Amino acid sequence: MDNFLNVSNLSVSFDVRGGLLLRKIGTIQAVNNVSFSLRKGETVGVVGESGCGKSTLARLILRLIEPSAGSVSLNGLDILSLSKKELRKQRRHMQMVFQDPFSVMDPRYTVYRSLSEPFKIRNIKHSKEERLAKINELLEMVDLSPIHGHSYPHQLSGGQKQRVDIARALALSPEILILDEPTAALDVSVQAQIIDLLGELRDRMDLTYLFISHDLALVNYFCDRIIVMYLGNIVEILSAESVNTKPYHPYTKALTDNVFSTDPNSKPIHVLEGEVPSPFNLPSGCVFASRCNKVQGLCREVAPVLEATAEGGEVACHYPIN
Amino acid sequence: MAILKVLDLSVEFRSKEKVVSPINGVSFEIEAGEVLGVVGETGSGKSLTAQSIMGLTPLIGGNVFGSVLFEGKDLLTLSDSEMQTVRGIEISYIPQNPMTSLDPVFRVGDQIIEGIRKHKKISVKEAKKLALDIMEQLRIPSPAQVYMQYPHQLSGGLKQRIVIAIGLITNPKILIADEPTTALDVTVQAQIMRLFKEQTIERGISLLLITHDLGVVAQVCDKVAVMYAGNVVEYGEIKIIFESPKHPYTQALIGCIPYMGMKKGSLSAIAGSVPNANKYPEGCRFHTRCPHVTEQCKAVAPAMSKVSNGSLAACHLYE
After folding, report:
1. To probe the interface with A, which of B197, B233, B257, B268 has the most A CB atoms within 10 Å?
2. Burial of A128 (0-12, 13-18, 19+ CB in 10 A)
């Protein structure tokens, strides 16, 4: 099958300025030479700890941040070369659901008005009745009732707000949704509801998802393939099944080992020492070298590149496990 | 003997129009050296329970009923100054967010020794030695250097370790930790949880761990109290509760947590959301979301009773 979304060699760095004259004192390589692709209808998870560049990656793909290098193409169309006007036209095909449902809605707008915005922006003219019918249909799609159209954000629970945000993202029938930690602010019982809903919508509307999360168990459950990021770099791409059975990168292994299982008889957690280093002026070599228990001289000098694995994944490691 | 016994704890907030009672009839106990998990979703009253034990609820205008017996004396009857000594020396509290619980304008070292200097006659030099000792036990790299630094110079994991050091330096008998790892990354969470486990074993401290994360509870605690809408609904040994949960809420809660290798489509959500303390349902507070609801559940609140596996559950199914 053809690749639907193609990201190649995408990078972005931010200058850090300091001192009296705000001179450039260094750079943060937030996303470094990232390449991957999504097939139509696929759900791909991006997982990593804070500061690994997963949210920046989402924003780069939608061009909410301009990349320093690389290319993004959706359905064969190069997103990065589009003019502002053309980009706006294309945005309806790719929508984002944000992490914090509490801050995405205007507190002065009713749900109805918030959900009318996408149509107004796209200049889609409806009669009043048509608009109401369309919005009620959207609300129904996310298991809310038409009554919720009259509510203000503060009258809704966190789960309901996230449903409204999903409805907003779906309003213009996009083909791809980028979900940036859509359940991180919710309780587990509500998280399960939202995950159920997202799965149902994916099947019904033939959506493609890029699902960003720090929760490996959740990504493992919901996604077909998983991209593991560390300090702006992709360290491994693998299928959801192999995360548990055959991870190649020591960091992927460490992440799976650090999931707290609800089975009290499971073996004790193998703790990964240290913390994610600052992305400020990264040293050469493998980004994970400072915390890796298999580190050798080569790792500190030469950065490994992604290479194909036997299972059809990719791994960037000089000394992979297995 | 239990070192801390919470009996029938309730909290009320009064306003002109109405009385809101976010927690009611909460009871549990902690043995010396034991780790008790209090688990529940947002709004279940778990943090308020911790604050009430620490005697902090009156500060936010709450009236506390019931009793909190610490080594036999009721903390709720103590005067403010007596309670301050208990808080300083006997029971320590570790708040949720290490980013906001440290003072940005003081060196972390000074913040670690502030508590012990207030409650015990001890020189700065001795206190510093004690602090460096604890920092070392908490695996803080180059403690002497970190001691002189300001909070903004430290990472999230290090800040949380500093907050734990503040809690441990007075050598308390009980540590109450309110969601101590929610703000941290998974690999750092595992490090911090290991520290808690090590410290409770080494020092024989009892730990009251408040969390929404059932995985953390399963891996760290000896016993668990599951809270829902201001009530403890199930209480007992970890292994028993996770292997054969009895209360429908505990069952549902465990069912909605994804685990590694979980089969697609097997995640089960709980319909609805946690009720607001303003309008708890009549009868059993879980009846609006419970798959086993009967007429009795809608009218009568169930009491805690012993169930077949030896734990306690508040559900009419087992009466």
Report:
1. B257
2. exposed
